[in-house]
Specification:
It is a single chain. The chain is mostly beta strands. It has a single domain, classed as Sandwich (Jelly Rolls). Helices cover 12% and strands 42% of the residues. The strands form two sheets. Strands 1, 3, 4, 6, 9, 10, 11 and 13 form an eight-stranded antiparallel sheet that branches. It is globular.
Length: 200
Amino acid sequence: MRFRFLLIAGLLCSLPLVCADKKVAKPGKWVSMFNGKDLDGWKANQSPESWTAVDGMIKGDGDVSHLFYMKEECGNCEFKAEVKISDKGNSGMYFRAAFGPGWPKGYEAQVNATHTDPVRTGSLYNFVKNLTDPSGPDTWFTQHIIADGNHIIIKVNDKVIVDTVEDKNTYTKGYFALQQHNKGSVVYFKNLMYRRLPEK
């Protein structure tokens, strides 16, 4: 009888902890970042004419510019989009980035199939290089970023390209942004989504 009491008491005591762990570990819901019609919620750091909303997509075409999503910042988060980059084009998906002129201070998941820069799509720019393009120019692909503390994963079409622990934890929080790298590059983004991950 005493053993049965202790067993039941132990189980009851452990339930709140189990429930609490599950609650803490649950990621947020996926949130759409683009309404398909205009750039509401987005802000260019320079050359805003380089960005347009067209046919349910965000298009980058023109002088160098970075388009920031101003409604939410990324700490621990996931960020994904369908992307198409032109031949010889160059772009990127930033996260934990600071808004300001010039090249953003933040992490960049590279978008580049055939540009003269050899660092290809799926790279964590300036941290982990991928020198083999996983997608090809003028072809839609999905890039998916997972930033959980200093553990960063970048997938292209569900294939892991980067899985790294960034020892310095250089950027811990900031905005999402899209890159228009240079005149002559043309990039399209659609189905842009993010979700929060639990803070540690």
